[in-house]
Amino acid sequence: MIVRLCGRLPLAVRIAGARLAARPQWSLDHLVRVLTDERQRLNGLVTGDLGVRASIASSYRALGGEVARLFRLLGTLDVPDFAGWVAAAVLDSSLDDGVAALEALVDAHLLAVTPATAPGQYRYRFHDLVRLYARERAEAEELPEERITSVSRALGAWLGMAEVMSDQTPGPCYAPIRGAAARLRVDPADVSDVDPVAWFDAECAALMRAVSQACALGLDELAYELAGCLERYFDLRGMYAEWSETNSRVLRLCEDTGNLRGQATMLRGLIEVRTWNNPEQDADAMAALLADATRLRDTFAAVGEERGVADALVLCSWAHTAKGGYDQARAAGTESLRLATSTGHLGGQARALVALALAAAETGQIAEAVGKLDQALVASRELGNPRHEATVLQFLGIAHCQIGNTDVSQRLLDAALAISRGCGDRYAEVLTMLALARLDLRRGDPSARAAAEAALAWGRHYNMRHHVADALSILGEISVAEGRPASAVPYLVESVAMWRKRGWLSFLASALVSLGLAFASSDQQAARAALTEAREIYTQLGDHPTALAVTRHVTGLRRARRTGTDG
């Protein structure tokens, strides 16, 4: 710990050792406590004529005026490293002048340069103790307002770059919500050769720290816009904990400052994570989705952001479908599509069409669902968002499987899987694997089990609660189809328990039917209870043909019981 607090700087470690040697009464823990306070750490690294501060100061005093100013102002940033354009923003200078000043600091051994990142940019970083000294000098030599202005310019540079890269990153096609924060104006043509995902890979740690610093300084506009730019990347990389933590922190700031647009933008992303990637789901997830989406709709409406309202209504539509409110789902989806169309929100149009397709499919209107999805596919391709294109292809594949078009389903799902794997999008990949497992089960293909087991493993790894519940249900169905009902029961018991917490009624009813069939040969009382509950849910949903089919299963159990008793 002492070596780490010394930043592994040989001089600092030597001084720490000398202080311990001169004070035998000190314990190692005591020195750790002395060095833990960043504001006092340099004071603790002095012994005799040796001092870390004095060593750094000699290099600092040799700097030219503008280079010294850059050194001080960079010390006010909380980020681990940065590219050359950050220095230009801090100095409010040209890129060439900013990089030249950085290189002067490297020559003075006050900055280290790291190998080029994937986007081809060199990055610079402070040694921890040098950063502390730079911050000391900034506090001593720069006015507080100049320090804040400098930090804001740097964060605005990250925002300008992140906006362009986020627009090109596969992910949820929400409306980009722009606020009033000052930002670097970046022409997308100037960075057309930069891979946006690789850019985020290089900048993610700095961006997350930038959001935290914006929150600490009360810069709510910068905070929510920066956090919003990270959402697609977080989703693509499966960084759901980081997404939740970042948005939650910014949401609290926006609530404190009364920033409704920021609140709505952060809540929109949080709803996504809470609904689909919550590791601790203790209540009805779909009821929570409806409540949160209704709040989101009202908040976006309060600031006149119709594209945001369209996004919120899609979430309302999904929640209504899950709870069996199909008329409300269609109404919400239709209004979302109207708003998205009138505001030119192409991603919103694609999402609304998928929501309407889902409501149609749940009520057995598969032809209508396919028609909506075909329209959504056109919109997704026009949008240029491969993530949503893969999503639409998945739902089309599922719909064609339901009506027996297995060859078409296979082609669509293969295309979706190729896109998801090409983007490194694990969430979309898992959903496609589940759809392929169901397709293989329908065709009697033994590869169904491997696909479902792989989907289950990834679903558990990323806390994809919906996918985990579905994978368990499929594995139970596969075991029943293989003539091993006893092996199916554990899968289906867990699936039913999860669907109760998810609150998606049609999925719960389906899992209950599978559980009833699995129990039929070993525990008729449990089988009858599961099937009776499933029948009640299907009746509640208005799906009377399926309810009647389940009734036949219950009747079959009664006959089997009487036959057994007579025998």
Automatic annotation (TrEMBL):
Instruction: Please name the Pfam families in this protein's record.
Output: TPR_12 (PF13424)
- Signal peptide start and end residues: none
**Source superkingdom:** Bacteria
Q: Which PANTHER family match?
A: HTH-TYPE TRANSCRIPTIONAL REGULATOR RV0890C-RELATED (PTHR47691:SF3), REGULATOR-RELATED (PTHR47691)
Q: What is this protein called?
A: Tetratricopeptide repeat protein
Q: Which organism is it from?
A: Asanoa ferruginea
